[in-house]
Design brief:
The complex is a heterodimer of chains A (106) and B (216). Chain A has five helices and four strands, in the order βαβαβααβα. Chain A is of the alpha/beta class and 106 residues long. A four-stranded parallel β-sheet of chain A has the order 2-1-3-4. Chain A is globular and about 40 Å long. Chain B is mainly alpha-helical and 216 residues long. Chain B has a single domain, classed as Orthogonal Bundle (Helix Hairpins), CATH 1.10.287. Chain B is built from three helices and two strands, in the order H-H-E-E-H. Chain B has a two-stranded antiparallel ribbon. In chain B, a hairpin with a 2-residue loop joins strand 1 and strand 2. The radius of gyration of chain B is 36 Å and the shape is rod-shaped. The mean pLDDT of chain B is 89. Classes of the chains: A alpha/beta (106), B mainly alpha (216). Chains A and B meet through strand 1, strand 3, strand 4 and helix 5 of A and helix 1, strand 1, strand 2 and helix 3 of B.
Chain lengths: 106, 216
């Protein structure tokens, strides 16, 4: 089944992605939660990239899709620099699986 | 450890022994599953970490290019240039089974095969910085998709490992000791019954003998 890729975040960070063929959804942090739910439930996207800012404010919504195969919600750094959200997410997986973080030493 | 609330009968004993054998075998298999999942997970996580480092670096470069582009072009012109994209990426969604965990596999395909289609604008009124920005973003895209696949796999596998580890622990530290205790309790109770009926028989025999000899 062919699905698309979506990118959510502030328009400054994500507008380039539309040129290379991803669907962009510019949004403010306040409306991100409902927009994310709308996009994720529409079942047309296999992967949704979120800027770190949006990723941080949609914790509750993300939990619903954690155990499902689609969509994959992936944090990416925006134009405002990298806050290390992606690394933290990876290390949280290691911590969940192993019991303590043995790869990132954090 | 608490003994289960069962009747100390021979039937119950055989039943429990069978259950213990099953529990031990299940424990061994789950332990194997956990170890194998863990091995694959750690390999995957290491790979994902390297990939994420790379992608984040490349994305930072892309944003730099876009900042350059917006410095030399007005924001209206920039928005207008990117307004109507020609290209569309589609993901063919597959899945692979790793130790009973379904992990995704993406195959990306673009709608048009023409590489020039990532530029949705005419080159006459835009700056070359924008071309740089778009082309650098296009170069990151395959890695970005791979990253999504890896991270989702990590997420699903870590959840499964946690579940399996809990099952292993509950079998190892709760279920199996409880079965063993109960089996011990029942066999001791049965032996006790056995001894008590044996002494009773001996006593009765003594009494009968005494009665027989006494009358002689």
């Amino acid at each position: 089944m062919a699905k698309n890729i979506a990118v959510m975040g502030d328009s400054e960070s994500i507008k380039g992605f539309s040129a290379v063929g991803l669907d962009i959804f510019p949004c403010e942090p306040e409306e991100a939660a409902s927009l994310l739910r709308h996009i994720a439930d529409s079942d047309t996207y296999a992967v949704i990239y979120l800027t770190e800012e949006i990723y941080g404010v949609t914790e509750k919504e993300r939990a619903r899709y954690a155990e499902r195969l689609t969509p994959a919600l992936i944090p990416i750094p925006g134009v405002r620099g990298n806050a290390g959200t992606g690394k933290k997410r990876l290390s949280s997986f290691v911590e969940k699986a192993v019991g303590s973080d043995i790869l990132f030493n954090g | 450890m608490a003994v289960m609330n069962v009747n100390p009968t021979r039937m119950q004993l055989t039943k429990l022994k069978k259950q213990l054998v099953t529990a031990v075998r299940g424990h061994k298999m789950l332990k194997d599953k956990r170890d194998e999942l863990m091995r694959q997970f750690l390999d995957l996580v290491r790979e994902t970490k390297a990939l994420r480092d790379k992608v984040e670096l490349e994305l930072a470069e892309c944003s730099d290019h876009f900042v350059n582009a917006s410095a030399v072009m007005s924001s209206q012109a920039l928005d207008a240039a990117l307004l109507s994209p020609k290209q569309q990426v589609q993901l063919e969604l597959g899945s692979r089974n790793v130790m009973s965990v379904e992990i995704p596999e993406y195959t990306a395909a673009s709608r048009t095969s023409n590489e020039g289609d990532i530029y949705p604008y005419g080159f006459a009124f835009t700056s070359f910085e924008l071309d740089d920005a778009v082309s650098s973003l296009n170069d990151v895209l395959p890695d970005l998709i791979k990253l999504a696949q890896y991270e989702k796999s990590c997420e699903l596998m870590s959840a499964e490992i946690e579940k399996t580890r809990r099952r292993v622990n509950s079998l190892e530290h709760v279920m199996i000791p409880r079965y063993q205790e109960t089996i011990k309790y029942i066999s001791m109770k049965l032996e006790e019954n056995d001894r008590s009926s044996r002494t009773r028989l001996m006593k009765v025999k003594d009494m009968l003998l005494e009665k027989a000899h006494g009358w002689n």
